[in-house]
Fold:
Amino acid sequence: MNNKIKEAIDGLLEFFHSGELPEKIALATNPAFDVPSSKWSLNNRLIQLFHGSMDSRGIKQWNSAGRKIKKGAKALFILAPRPYEYYECKCSMLFGKELAQGKCPKCKEDISKKDIKTGISFVAVPVFKADDTEGQPLPYENIPLPQHRFMDVARAWNLKIESAADMHTAITRKTGR
Structure:
């Protein structure tokens, strides 16, 4: 198995073993931020959360947002499905779609287009966290705190009040990563 895919799966399994999975799912799904990764599968959102981010994108996505990847930044890897077509002959030979024409070379059985099936494999796709980029401000940065009637109580109790839109700070505080 590709090391990047294994690393992504190991991160997911760590959430299961740690007992933190319900909290991580809540962080990954609520609220849904208006960032490209909010449309990813739950597994991929958990992978990015495991890496301390709620906004990760590919290089082209960051470039279109007016941001560049910082020098020396390390990618994290999500899993992208890749469908493929195959044919399994009655004699147990497997063929890719391009080979599934005519007759099986082993048993000479006719290969029919209706017998071609679709499978799914996964590839590791590199993405970078928002913290690993620089450039144009992101829409969720520097959101002012609303004036809530309990703000004075929180300050009296010496609680630090910050905007949750600084996703990395919120995640770091919650997860310790």
In short: DSSP finds six helices and six strands in the chain.
